[in-house]
Design goal:
The structure holds two protein chains of two kinds. By secondary structure, chain A is α+β, with helices and mostly antiparallel strands. Chain A has helices at residues 12-20, 28-31, 73-88, 119-136, 157-164, and strands at 3-6, 45-52, 56-57, 60-69, 94-99, 101-103, 108-116, 139-145, 150-152. Helices cover 33% and strands 31% of the residues of chain A. Chain B has one domain (2-77): Roll (Ubiquitin-like (UB roll)). In chain B, 27% of the residues lie in helices and 23% in strands. Chain B is built from three helices and five strands. In chain B, a hairpin with a 2-residue loop joins strand 3 (54-57) and strand 4. Chain B is globular and about 35 Å long. Classes of the chains: A alpha+beta, B alpha+beta. At the A-B interface, strand 4, helix 3, helix 4 and strand 8 of A face loops of B.
Chain lengths: 169, 83
């Protein structure tokens, strides 16, 4: 599964193994056509981004955070973002995992990964998926600070700026 | 019509979803916002400044003048903060 929304933590080693495993070989009829499609190429590069819960945000010490999402729309949006990346770059595989529920400082929140014959495509696709996830995927964080308060995290203009660099002119 | 609320909009309104019969005068999201705002103080407060609110119809982001029909699922939520 290339899009996962889950409460449980994720295991980096098994995801890495999944991304590193060769894509299944093409059917004989396709192979005879002579041109290797991207699906038949073994990856020369794997790019992974992992986001963690910060312990300080806006000068406030964080005890915990709760992540809410919009089931149905979240999966649709993440699938669309991944599909866009697959069309834009020559990728073998692409994966997005996002956790929901209660999380604590240093917990893993999000993983985005891509494989490609070459490093630039893998790195760019990973950054692209992350920038779009931050601005379009319907997740909301509420933070519990050490002074006992709970507040909804505000969106940042810098995330919109980061996304705009991918817009083609 | 199914209405969904998330994050602080859900807290202000006091529910995460409600089923309402679509009023004949509600042709766009903007009409629906006016209709919902009359339902309670919480609704009015949550929907008072639509520059702070994002709208999705059937899981797709739309503008305030987007048309709506009785079978739609309309969601109101703040700008997203995942990742």
């Amino acid at each position: 599964m290339t899009i996962r929304i889950q409460e449980d933590d994720f295991d980096l080693a098994s995801i890495y193994a999944e991304l590193r495993a060769p894509l299944s070989p093409p059917a004989a009829s396709t192979a005879q056509e002579g041109t290797l499609s991207v699906g038949t190429l073994s990856a020369g590069a794997i790019s992974l981004f992992i986001g963690l819960v910060r312990d300080i945000n806006d000068d406030q010490r964080i005890d915990a955070m709760t992540l809410e999402h919009y089931p149905g729309m979240t999966e649709a949006k993440l699938t669309a973002i991944r599909d866009q990346a697959m069309r834009r770059w020559q990728l073998g595989k692409a994966i997005i995992i996002h956790r929901v529920g209660k999380l604590y400082p240093n917990d893993q929140i999000v993983l985005v990964g891509a494989t490609s014959p070459h490093r630039h495509a893998a790195c760019d696709a990973t950054a692209f998926m992350m920038d779009y996830l931050k601005t379009e995927a319907p997740f909301w964080k509420s933070e519990q600070t050490t002074d006992g308060n709970t507040k909804w995290v505000a969106s940042r203009d810098s995330d919109m700026t980061a996304r705009s660099r991918w817009q083609k002119t | 019509m199914k209405i969904r609320y998330f994050a602080w909009l859900r807290e202000h309104i006091g529910t995460s979803s409600e089923d309402i019969p679509l009023d004949q005068t509600c042709r766009t999201v903007s009409d629906l916002v006016a209709f919902l705002s009359a339902r309670s103080v919480g609704h009015r407060h949550a929907l008072s400044d639509m520059t702070l609110v994002r709208v999705a119809v059937n899981h797709v982001y739309v503008d305030i003048d987007h048309p709506i029909t009785a079978g739609d699922e309309v969601a109101f939520f703040p700008p997203v903060t995942g990742g």
